[in-house]
Design brief:
Blueprint (H helix, E strand, L loop, with lengths): L15 H20 L3 E2 L5 E3 H8 L4 H5 L3 E3 L5 E4 L4 H10 L9 E10 L11 E10 L4 H17 L5 E7 L3 H17 L6 H5 L14 H8 L10 H17 L4 E2 L11 E9 L7 E7 L3 H4 L7 E7 H7 L11 E5 L2 H13 L4 E3 L6 H10 L4 E5 L5 E5 L5 E4 L4 H10 L1
Parallel strand pairs: 1-5, 7-8, 12-13, 12-14
Antiparallel strand pairs: 2-4, 3-4, 5-6, 6-11, 7-9, 9-10, 10-11, 14-15, 15-16
Helix pairs in contact: 1-5, 5-9
Bound molecules: histidyl-adenosine monophosphate.
């Protein structure tokens, strides 16, 4: 019995008509990051589960609830990558990149997987573009990366952006702040949500993320880590801020910005866009000065970000134009149409032909529907006309000069 299938929950197909806007985003990002000296890296779509459990953090939502994990036939525990930073640090250590000149600047693009509740802007397979600078603790790197993400988004025409900026301090400051916050939360335990109470010991900072009313009220009066930053952390953060001011990138200080991954230290940031509604986070990141060491490498400071491609597309105000063929070959004789189209393509002219045995008139209609800029009309006697579809202007062409004539008309 035949059965109809649908794409799995929270996933989607990208149809050809939707591809050109994705390509635009990818090309823009590639050019921008390449010009800033970031080299593209690709890592596998799945990794050992342990990498994410250690790297992202045992108590995070990602690890406790959102991973697509499985055992392979050899009994290895594997997980479809929910994010790219832990895999890149794994690759940095595995390939001895700490021996290369530092920092190692990398960028990536590809699919990621999280078993989240699907809604607009939140999917179970989604695409990220990300950048990481590994092997530098300079605040210049923090500022460079924030500016790059700002340029990536603004360069695509996304304007109603807000940049939220915070600092989590060094692990030591964070640890003592965590204690202070835990004590404060214990004092107000009865007002907190069950989830926050359950995570008081493992991850009290996540209480800032809660949308439970009682918890939110308690959090408004909670001590913030920005008030606790010590000498070097405070200085680092002040330098990042002054560099962003100098670059003309506006931001809002957000002492409650914790982000959902455990590896962050010092600077954290997130771009939000109101057009996106509930899933307003379009891209974010921060420093993760302890992650490379945690994954078996030398002590190596690093910083990076990732942006969601689908959220970028949702935030784009103007749809990019559909890709259209330059030429549609119209010819009653199929073999001749075939040869003419191939000949044009060899000259890097995008050319289509009828593949559905349409009559001459039907082919003209099809040329229109495909949005072709020109029709190359090949008559029975072999004579050729070049027709500009929009104006309807038409002229005879020497068949031997066809590609040159199209190229000249294209540039006219
Ligand atoms: P993240 O904030 O978890 O960070 O994800 C980055 C971006 O990916 C989000 O801002 C959002 O646009 C997109 N995204 C996340 N989950 C989904 C989803 N379920 N559906 C659609 N889009 C989604 C990270 O992943 C870190 N690795 C970023 C980083 C790099 N930090 C340092 N380096």
């Amino acid at each position: 019995m035949a059965v109809k299938h649908s794409a799995p929950k929270g996933t989607f197909d990208v149809l050809p008509s939707e591809e050109s806007s994705r390509e635009l985003v990818a090309t823009h990002a590639g050019k921008l990051l390449d010009a800033a000296g970031y080299g593209r890296i690709e890592t596998p779509a799945f990794e050992e589960t342990e990498l994410f459990a250690r790297g992202v953090g045992e108590s995070t939502d990602i690890v406790t609830k959102e991973m697509f994990s499985f055992s392979d036939r050899g009994g290895r525990e594997l997980t479809l990558r929910p994010e790219g930073t832990a895999p890149i640090c794994r690759a940095y250590v595995e390939h001895g990149m700490h021996k290369d000149p530092q920092p190692v600047k990398l960028w990536y693009a590809g699919p990621f997987f999280r078993a989240e509740k699907p809604q607009q802007g939140r999917y179970r397979q989604f695409n990220q573009i990300g950048a990481e600078a590994i092997g530098t603790d300079s605040p210049l790197a923090d500022a460079e990366l924030v500016v790059l993400l700002d340029e990536l988004l603004r360069g695509l025409g996304i304007t109603d952006l807000e940049l939220r900026l915070g600092s989590l301090g060094s692990p030591e400051v964070r640890a003592s702040y965590r204690e202070e916050l835990r004590d404060y939360l214990r004092e107000h335990e009865s007002s907190l949500s069950e989830e926050v109470r359950g995570r008081l010991d493992t991850n009290p900072l996540r209480a800032f993320d809660s949308d439970h009313e009682g918890t939110r009220e308690v959090m408004q009066r909670a001590p913030t880590i920005l008030e606790r930053l010590d000498g070097e952390d405070a200085e680092h953060f002040a330098t990042v801020r002054s560099l962003l001011d100098a670059a003309g990138v506006p931001y809002t200080l957000d002492p409650s910005l914790v982000r959902g991954l455990d590896y962050y230290t010092r600077t954290v940031f997130e771009f939000t866009c109101d057009r996106l509604g509930a899933q307003s986070g379009i891209g974010g990141g921060g420093r993760y000065d302890g992650l490379v060491e945690l994954l078996g490498g030398p002590s190596t400071p690093a910083i990076g970000w990732a942006a969601g491609v689908e959220r970028i597309l949702l935030a784009l105000e103007d749809e990019p134009p559909l890709r259209r063929p330059e030429v549609f070959v119209v010819c009653a004789e199929p073999r001749r149409a075939f040869e003419t189209a191939l000949g044009l393509r060899r000259h890097r002219i995008s050319a289509q032909l009828d593949l559905a045995a349409r009559a001459f008139k039907g082919q003209m209609k099809q040329a229109n529907r495909a949005g072709a800029r020109f029709a190359v009309i090949v008559e029975q006697d072999g004579s050729v006309k070049l027709r500009e579809m929009e104006s309807g202007e038409q002229r005879d062409i020497d068949p031997a000069d066809l590609p040159e004539a199209v190229i000249a008309a294209r540039e006219a």
